[in-house]
Amino acid sequence: MTRLAGKTAIITGAASGFGEGMAKRFAAEGANVVVADLNLKGAQKVAAAIGGKSIAVHADVTRKDEVENMVQTAADQFGRIDIMVNNAGFTYRNGSMLEVDESTFDLITGVNMKSIYYSALAVVPVMEAQGGGSIITTASTAGLRPRPGLTWYNASKGWAISATKSMAIELAPKKIRVNCLCPVAGETPMLGLFMGEDTPEKRAQFKATVPLGRLSTPLDVANAALWLASDEAEFITGVALEVDGGRCI
Question: How many structural domains is the chain composed of?
């Protein structure tokens, strides 16, 4: 299928987890994919697995210059940027909010919040010049239905959801759609941090809170992102789409 034929997508945090799933799914639908990650070797591995029109770019999304370079590289390589996925995220081990040190707090806000600002500064002018585009952020059910133990992470995802809605309003006249995804915890490298520890008992306890009875997968999130990125969703903007098996009900 070619639902994204001729489109170019940048996906941050694409060396593993949800980002890797999106990169592979988008490429399968015909997109040129920029696999961006702090882990360049991991990004190169994903890009090599995709093949075709895919490139790997080193990107520390907490640095304005590296985000600018990522966007410029994509524009230089493919001539346009149709889809910007702010997927890179950071969390800490589930525990008391009072035990999160300042450097960890700063990293949470840098990766989960400020990176969205940086990417907007870099990509919105490109999208405006070409007549439109789609911006998607990976938020979380944590931003909709917070639970104890991840207070500062929850807050950062709530911020991402509010930013999505405000950006959608402001950028609508430019034909730039802005949406976010709110996945429940899934099969990613951060799962153990969300649960405190990754054990069969913890998994069973967590799955029991999801009406459909399982964790999310990268493919679940990638399929949702694919729809939001495609022309099928051309009238959808400002949405925080729950990909959660019913957890937020």
Answer: 1
